[in-house]
Batch of 2 targets.
Target 1
Amino acid sequence: MLQIKHFSLRFSLYGKGLEQRDLEVISSLDVDIKAGELVSIIGSSGSGKSLLAHAVLGILPANAHLSGELYYQGQALTKKALEKLRGREIALIPQSVTYLDPTMKVGKQVMGVRHDAADVEAVFRRYKLPASVMDKYPFELSGGMARRILVSAAVIAGAKLIIADEPTPGLSETLAKEALAHLRELADMGCGVMLITHDITLALEVSDRISIFYSGLTLETALRRDFEDGGRSLRHPYTRALWKALPQNDFSPLPGFQPYAGTVTEQCAFFPRCTMATEECLHPIPMRDLRDGKVRCIHAA
């Protein structure tokens, strides 16, 4: 449904004296999502994962420059194609409920210009929202209700590809699991779902595959089952270290810090923190297939 190949993103910036420079924030990225599949993009702040969502939707600022290939159901995601697909077949569930217009009742916002009140009531019932919610403003809703409104807007549009950008911040664990269960339901109905999050524990409850972002790169894409044996089936040393750092596992800290996207040189981005690093890691490392997954590491076996 969605295929991203060798994708890079850079921004043109101006420094002192109008000196122009380019800052590359995503480098040689490969991601794909099939119909009926939920793929989670896991990464900490600054890894570039939200910029990927904006690139797919075509909502990047004017100083953004893209290279590589983006396809939706075999169709190149050009500017013209996105004008027809965005908000219809491709929908965004944003990370903040502030995307809802505070001056407009939520029923009218979800209804848009292509649906009537009966359509909205039907989709609201599906997400356990009473019809009376249609006459409320966003500030009158609880956090959980507002999240369900955002999901409803994507569903009523009939979207086939749904991008959920950090849909759980500020929610209790119960509400967060409920929000992700709605995304899992959409995937089970045949949609392709991209979940962008920093919470690997919650993501594993609903995902089919997990892609690990690090400083603008995909280091590994793994099946959910690869995380079920204590991380021994994981391929990249960073993914294994990330798994071991979780409280329910070894709770082992990983020394060092992730460099910001755009600051990495030609070497492996994880090189300064990796216990397996060798001189061979000082050169660009391509993504490769390994054991039903993908990895960007010469030492993975």
Target 2
Amino acid sequence: MRAVASLVLPFEKPVVELLERVRELEVALGSGAAGGADTGGSRELAELRAEVVRAARELFATLSPMQKVQLSRHANRPYTLDYVARMLTDWVELRGDRRFADDASIVAGLGKFRGRSVVVVGHQKGRGTKDNVKRNFGMPNPEGYRKASRMFELADRFGLPVLTFIDTPGAYPGLGAEERGQSEAIGASIQSMARARVPIVASIIGEGGSGGALALGVANQVLVLEFGCYSVISPEGCAAILWKDGARVDEAAAQLKLTSADLVELGVVDCVVDEPPGGAHQDHDAAAALLGDAIARALDELGGLGAEALADHRYARFRALGAHA
């Protein structure tokens, strides 16, 4: 099923218009409206699809870092539960941190990924005002990270691979969150991931902000979608702190090196996963198929490592970050 783009960013309009034409022609061919011109219609559809791919490649190659950040935050972008619905079978969601409450901004559970039993933990944003309030706009409280820690320990106990999905502007900075130990909860989640003796694959599916993202990112392999971003701070926060000038947000985004191309060049991530023409928000099914293939390859690559070797591999990977000759 394709996403219906209710929000179109100004710079993506040419590609969105082409995609709409593709969808209209697909509907016409599917309903038989093309009649006896089916062969010609199919040829036109193939040509139009090729045009979409070409136009998207050319247009998106020129996007600024801040425009890519906007894509990573797109309201129609698939979230963790969208990927779970398309990638996993026998999904069972587990809730609560066994200490305080359940945090709906982090979802977790068990399921089967292409025949493998896995544990899944991911940030979850909402769609619409009511759902966004429930999900706290994808900004977890301490109980969310404690739920994640519980899941990592569960995976370690039963020898199950872990898949995490990162998509948050950052951990919630509210007074209640600080009173309940936000920083300790994030640290405990990082510690639980670091210690786990199972394969862990993290996927940055949208925006990854600060420690709130890193709490689900201590993995053996870290993947990022083509228009995902990952940074210690948002461009808006960076501009406000460094220059006290929100108008310099584009400059901040460029300096932060937060795009997928920057991240793979710096060694922060291991693989950039292509998105469908126009971005993941234009076709959730295709985005899930592409990401699923990348996750399967990562799990296969990690399959030869033993329990202790997996933890050592993770330790070595993160110790090497930021090292310069």
